[in-house]
Design brief:
By secondary structure, this protein is mostly helical. Helices cover 74% and strands 0% of the residues. It is built from 17 helices and no strands.
Length: 419
């Protein structure tokens, strides 16, 4: 049951940790990327994705730097309380729990709906309800989190492998038909402004690289081996970035910028996107594979997010890493969001939006404050993130830009691209 390595235990693979990171990052937010970045279009979206990837990866490494100064198994509660005090610990703890719980709820509602549809398609006599689909989806994957981090590692690797296959199958036709004038938005007299839409697209990119709740889990998984954790983070987030870039290329290289209007009007609904793509490529097969891809993406994100929540709650409640302790942590991790999803089964999009706003606190601001204090308190610490003080303020600026963009969007102060 224990996640800790021993002399007789097999050393966890680098690939496994990278798959946990990639699986957490590449979630349902990916399906919103082409639509949410339509205003800045292809070149602008790639620049935003690379900028966000660098900042989010660096802030994740800052959490690693702070975490390595504490005993194995320490998570946000222990670290923030000791370094920043009770006030910041309440703020961080509330935001961490809110984001991880709300994402767990969002993935249960979405994954439950797809589970219901798939099982009813293949076994019509079952006539499963949406609630039954959510319960099956949640319980099946929760079992792996209850077992161990290694179990999540193994399943995440399988899911990511399936995602990559589905991704290649669904985008191969689209990539082969990429139109350069469409990709660069050439030869059109319609809206050719891009800069006004940069801030509006930034928060969605942030959600697309959220993995920070898994850093304490990886420190524990790799038995404080900083080099392995760093490599796993870079490999995982790098794979996510690569998938996003090819996805942007596949969609924005086929569908003209102006044609995103009906998709934007339906809040980026995937069926609306496929409908718009039908004018440029045969999408019957693509639609089927994309549904499979979306399911794997949601499942892998669910595993990564709930693993981070599991370890956070175990640290917060001081539950032991044995059968009884892991069972109590599992119930606390999965039961509240499952009950919420049974009560409100269609709150996915709203939940993701709120998660992005609150996540900025502990993926941007708190990591910066932690490393600034830790470097004074632990001058001989074994690992330091690159960039010195400049990087601290660089990441802080990124966090404030995201908070400003999200608040300004809520109040309608930012221009919105409508196609």
């Amino acid at each position: 049951m224990s996640n800790q390595t021993s002399s007789n235990a097999k050393v966890p693979s680098l690939l496994g940790g990278a798959m946990i990171i990639a699986g957490t990052a590449v979630g349902a937010g990916m399906l919103a990327n082409p639509t949410s970045t339509a205003g800045v279009w292809f070149i602008g979206s790639i620049a935003l994705l690379v900028y966000t990837w660098f900042c989010m990866t660096t802030s994740g490494l800052m959490i690693l730097e702070a975490n390595l100064n504490y005993p194995l198994g320490a998570s946000f509660d222990t670290i923030v309380k000791d370094v920043l005090g009770r006030g910041w610990n309440v703020v961080t703890g509330t935001s961490v729990a809110f984001v991880l719980y709300i994402l767990t709820y969002a993935y249960i509602t979405s994954g439950g709906g797809i589970t219901q549809g798939l099982l009813n398609d293949y076994f019509p006599s079952l006539a499963l309800s949406r609630s039954s689909g959510s319960i099956i989806f949640c319980m099946a994957l929760a079992a792996f989190v209850w077992l161990s981090t290694r179990a999540v590692d193994r399943l995440s690797t399988v899911l990511i492998g399936g995602m990559i296959i589905a991704f290649v199958l669904s985008t191969s036709g689209l990539l082969s038909s990429v139109n350069v004038p469409t990709l660069l938005n050439l030869g059109t007299s319609k809206n050719t402004q891009y800069l006004p839409y940069i801030l509006g697209a930034l928060p969605v990119c942030l959600v697309s690289f959220g993995f920070h709740g898994n850093v304490p889990s990886l420190v524990k998984y790799y038995d404080r081996d900083a080099k392995k954790v760093v490599k796993a983070i870079f490999l995982g987030t790098g794979l996510a970035l690569l998938i996003y870039i090819f996805w942007q290329l596949a969609i924005q290289g086929n569908l003209p910028r102006a044609d995103f209007a009906p998709i934007i009007a339906k809040n980026g609904d995937i069926s609306a996107l496929l409908s718009a793509l039908s004018s440029v490529i045969q999408t019957d097969f693509v639609a089927t594979v994309l549904q499979f891809f979306a399911y794997l993406a949601i499942a892998s994100s669910f595993l990564g997010v709930t693993l981070g929540l599991f370890d956070y709650l175990a640290d917060l409640c001081h539950f032991k890493d044995d059968f009884a302790g892991r069972t109590k942590t599992t119930l606390l991790t999965f039961l509240p969001p499952l009950l919420l999803s049974l009560k409100y089964p269609y709150g996915f999009v709203i939940a993701i939006g709120y998660a992005g706003l609150v996540a900025t606190i502990w993926t941007g601001i708190v990591p910066v404050l932690l490393v600034k204090k830790c470097r004074v308190r632990f001058p001989q610490q074994s690992y330091r993130v690159y960039g010195g003080n400049f990087m601290i303020y660089f990441i802080l600026l990124f966090a404030f830009l995201n908070i400003f963009a999200q608040v300004a969007s809520q109040f309608g102060y930012l221009p919105v691209f409508k196609g």
